[in-house]
Amino acid sequence: MSQNPPDLRPDLARATVPRDDTNQPRIGMVSLGCPKALVDSERILTRLRAEGYAISPDYEGAEAVIVNTCGFLDSAKAESLDAIGEALTENGRVIVTGCLGAEEDYIRGTHPSVLAVTGPHQYEQVLDAVHKAVPPSPDPFIDLLPATGVSLTPRHYSYLKISEGCNHKCKFCIIPDMRGRLASRPQKAVLREAEKLAEAGTRELLIISQDTSAYGTDWKDREAKAPILDLARALGQIASQDELWVRLHYVYPYPHVRELIPLMADSGNAVLPYLDIPFQHAHPDVLRRMARPAAASRTLDEIRAWRADCPDITLRSTFIVGYPGETEAEFQHLLDWLDEAQLDRVGCFQYENVDGARSNALPDHVAAEVKQDRWDRFMEKAQAISEAKLAAKLGTRMTVLVDSIEADGATCRTTADAPEIDGNLFIDEGFEGLKPGDMVEVEVDEAGEYDLWGRMTS
């Protein structure tokens, strides 16, 4: 499970957030899980800051701590419980929210002394709990916030959540139970937030949701069959004007996704040629047991069509190995499919039972040692594909976004790299004048299994 952000959590880094010198009550935040949870944390902190609270970078300086939990997998639940326990030990006054917050009895069974428990994106309930535990102290001279609110990511990139919930019924997933059915934000609200982020200096917008392709399909009075197409065009126009990137995450391979590809192929549009699509598996029988679309052969046809329309497109996906009933033949089918698909960026998880998931009741669960073996073999295959694809980039020129500067070099990302989940491009010479958020042109002169190295061309 990812932890967001690793350098701003009081349990991981004590002194990275500048301490406020105000006398306002201080609230700490521990944010676990996916980027969608990170956006929730930012919204909570923004509201608190506007109501007269300061943000504490450590446990000791906080009068209460909010723990935004993840509850997707059993391992994530365990880590969330550990984080709650540490916050209780270090501070003692803890408010729990997030996906695991939907299971209040489960949390209180381990940590009965938490002050309050709320579910995911229940902002008002979190604020009520904070007000009760630590009354606010408004100060009109210091409560004013920038239009973008409180951000937990570096200033040059921002997550932009366009919807909540999901209408899929995948047997291994309980997200719809925790976050509800699809609820899309109005397009005007999304575009207004994008404009504010651009004005504040964001160089990359990372578009997230549970199902980005389905954006707007929950609107009964919608005119467009697939509103994500209009939203992507509008975001691309904003990004083109402000010279920033737009990156789409969590895109399900519906037929209308093909209509997004021309936007990505258009050099005048800032929607990056990058699709993050959760295929999960390739064998049709496994996909049926997952209750996912079982059309892997047609998916390969779609991939070929995408690449024909946009040769520079980067395809990222995630897969599950060891799903209940998965045979060796089905797993080998997945490896063969991966050979043919030649995806650029790949993640893989070993199946885990999750409380409340329908997959728990499926027969023929795969032994732990078999799951580990299959994961190892899958990642070996994916690594070889990645290494070959990156080697083909030697000698090419590309624009990169600078993420950080250290004593020995600059860490950057190409259009093929999302922050924290993909690779990097490193510049180790002539980087002294760079700063985070700069976009520079480089020539690739070295390639590894997942990363590139380059030198600036000007």
UniProtKB/TrEMBL annotation:
<dbReference type="InterPro" id="IPR005840">
    <property type="entry name" value="Ribosomal_uS12_MeSTrfase_RimO"/>
</dbReference>
<feature type="compositionally biased region" description="Basic and acidic residues">
    <location>
        <begin position="8"/>
        <end position="23"/>
    </location>
</feature>
<dbReference type="Pfam" id="PF04055">
    <property type="entry name" value="Radical_SAM"/>
</dbReference>
<feature type="binding site">
    <location>
        <position position="34"/>
    </location>
    <ligand>
        <name>[4Fe-4S] cluster 1</name>
    </ligand>
</feature>
<dbReference type="InterPro" id="IPR038135">
    <property type="entry name" value="Methylthiotransferase_N_sf"/>
</dbReference>
<comment type="function">
    <text>Catalyzes the methylthiolation of an aspartic acid residue of ribosomal protein uS12.</text>
</comment>
<dbReference type="InterPro" id="IPR023404">
    <property type="entry name" value="rSAM_horseshoe"/>
</dbReference>
<feature type="binding site">
    <location>
        <position position="70"/>
    </location>
    <ligand>
        <name>[4Fe-4S] cluster 1</name>
    </ligand>
</feature>
<keyword id="KW-0411">Iron-sulfur</keyword>
<comment type="similarity">
    <text>Belongs to the methylthiotransferase family. RimO subfamily.</text>
</comment>
<dbReference type="GO" id="GO:0103039">
    <property type="term" value="F:protein methylthiotransferase activity"/>
</dbReference>
<dbReference type="InterPro" id="IPR007197">
    <property type="entry name" value="rSAM"/>
</dbReference>
<keyword id="KW-0808">Transferase</keyword>
<feature type="region of interest" description="Disordered">
    <location>
        <begin position="1"/>
        <end position="26"/>
    </location>
</feature>
<keyword id="KW-0408">Iron</keyword>
<dbReference type="GO" id="GO:0005829">
    <property type="term" value="C:cytosol"/>
</dbReference>
<dbReference type="GO" id="GO:0035599">
    <property type="term" value="F:aspartic acid methylthiotransferase activity"/>
</dbReference>
<dbReference type="GO" id="GO:0005840">
    <property type="term" value="C:ribosome"/>
</dbReference>
<dbReference type="InterPro" id="IPR012340">
    <property type="entry name" value="NA-bd_OB-fold"/>
</dbReference>
<keyword id="KW-0689">Ribosomal protein</keyword>
<dbReference type="Pfam" id="PF18693">
    <property type="entry name" value="TRAM_2"/>
</dbReference>
<feature type="domain" description="Radical SAM core">
    <location>
        <begin position="152"/>
        <end position="388"/>
    </location>
</feature>
<feature type="domain" description="TRAM">
    <location>
        <begin position="391"/>
        <end position="458"/>
    </location>
</feature>
<dbReference type="InterPro" id="IPR006638">
    <property type="entry name" value="Elp3/MiaA/NifB-like_rSAM"/>
</dbReference>
<keyword id="KW-0004">4Fe-4S</keyword>
<keyword id="KW-0687">Ribonucleoprotein</keyword>
<feature type="binding site">
    <location>
        <position position="99"/>
    </location>
    <ligand>
        <name>[4Fe-4S] cluster 1</name>
    </ligand>
</feature>
<feature type="binding site">
    <location>
        <position position="173"/>
    </location>
    <ligand>
        <name>[4Fe-4S] cluster 2</name>
    </ligand>
</feature>
<feature type="domain" description="MTTase N-terminal">
    <location>
        <begin position="25"/>
        <end position="135"/>
    </location>
</feature>
<feature type="binding site">
    <location>
        <position position="170"/>
    </location>
    <ligand>
        <name>[4Fe-4S] cluster 2</name>
    </ligand>
</feature>
<dbReference type="Pfam" id="PF00919">
    <property type="entry name" value="UPF0004"/>
</dbReference>
<dbReference type="GO" id="GO:0051539">
    <property type="term" value="F:4 iron, 4 sulfur cluster binding"/>
</dbReference>
<dbReference type="GO" id="GO:0046872">
    <property type="term" value="F:metal ion binding"/>
</dbReference>
<dbReference type="InterPro" id="IPR002792">
    <property type="entry name" value="TRAM_dom"/>
</dbReference>
<dbReference type="GO" id="GO:0006400">
    <property type="term" value="P:tRNA modification"/>
</dbReference>
<dbReference type="InterPro" id="IPR013848">
    <property type="entry name" value="Methylthiotransferase_N"/>
</dbReference>
<keyword id="KW-0949">S-adenosyl-L-methionine</keyword>
<dbReference type="InterPro" id="IPR005839">
    <property type="entry name" value="Methylthiotransferase"/>
</dbReference>
<keyword id="KW-0963">Cytoplasm</keyword>
<keyword id="KW-0479">Metal-binding</keyword>
<protein>
    <recommendedName>
        <fullName>Ribosomal protein uS12 methylthiotransferase RimO</fullName>
        <ecNumber>2.8.4.4</ecNumber>
    </recommendedName>
</protein>
<dbReference type="InterPro" id="IPR058240">
    <property type="entry name" value="rSAM_sf"/>
</dbReference>
